[in-house]
Design a protein that fits this description.
Layout (H helix, E strand, L loop, with lengths): L1 H13 L1 H13 L9 H19 L9 H29 L45 H8 L3 H24 L4 H17 L6 H6 L1 H14 L3 H29 L2
Length: 256
């Protein structure tokens, strides 16, 4: 049974955002259009973390090194500051604009189509329309629902992502019998976290690599996911404040 759970944990962790987007666009949005895509995403992530707890036990959180736990808040602060600066620097150079604004009006999406997730909606469509992909205008309802969510949504997502990628996956990697397997799984976990942001665009995938590497390093140094969770939560809070200011300015300019 343990190996089945590990298989679900690894396969489910490869693309939980895409799974949530598909479930939301196909079944939830036609019935409950005001439910944000982050809702099924957090449910999926919580389920995967639960499986991780069943596989790894409490060692998913920490290995018992109390000095590491003591310095975790400071490490988390350093992670958030450095990762945020690296994220902004990379995005500024890989995108034509440092700030994103909502895309121009397009045709309304057909019922059941899948749009970019959450604040990724400001990216517009991804390299042209495709089956199951958004081609419609970003309506006022969608803007209110997906970009004006409270910070608790993004903080909760940050903690769950660290519990999965640095906690559950990281513990599996460290418990592997072969060093090569440990390195391979840690590498996959680091990249899987960055690819998680693909709905925002490839620039965001690259920009999240410093955060992923810093969170991994802090976890290995401290022996706990606490530093990674604090740093990631702080990072996401900065993201929330940034996009709130961007869309707040858009609202003041347009009066909508």
């Amino acid at each position: 049974m343990r190996y089945y759970l590990i298989g679900i944990l690894l396969l489910g962790g490869l693309a939980p955002m895409w799974l949530a987007s598909h479930l939301h666009g196909r079944w939830i949005e036609p019935i409950r259009p005001r439910v944000p895509t982050l809702a099924p995403y957090l449910v999926i992530m919580a389920g995967l973390v639960g499986i991780g707890l069943a596989v790894d036990g409490p060692h998913l959180f920490a290995d018992g090194r109390w000095p590491g736990l003591a310095v975790s808040p400071l490490l988390g602060y350093v992670i958030s500051r450095l990762s945020w600066r690296a994220d902004r620097w990379i995005l500024t150079r890989l995108t034509r604009r440092g700030e994103h604004t909502p895309p121009p009006a397009r045709l309304r999406p057909a019922r059941g189509t899948v749009r970019p997730v959450g604040i990724a909606a400001d990216k517009g469509t991804l390299d042209g329309p495709a089956p199951g992909q958004a081609t419609g205008r970003w309506t006022r309802l969608e803007r209110t629902r997906d970009t004006h969510l409270g910070p608790a949504w993004l903080i909760g997502g940050a903690v769950l992502e660290e519990l999965l990628y640095r906690g559950a996956w990281g513990r599996l990697a460290l418990d592997a019998a072969l060093l090569s397997a440990t390195i391979a799984l840690l590498t996959v976990a680091t990249l899987a976290f960055t690819v998680l942001h693909l709905p925002f665009g490839w620039a965001h995938v690259v920009a999240k690599l410093p955060l992923s590497l810093a969170a991994l390093a802090a976890t290995l140094i401290s022996g706990s996911i606490l530093a990674a969770a604090i740093g990631h939560a702080w990072f996401n809070l900065r993201v929330w404040k940034h996009y709130r200011s961007v869309f707040g300015g858009q609202k003041r300019r347009t009066g909508r």
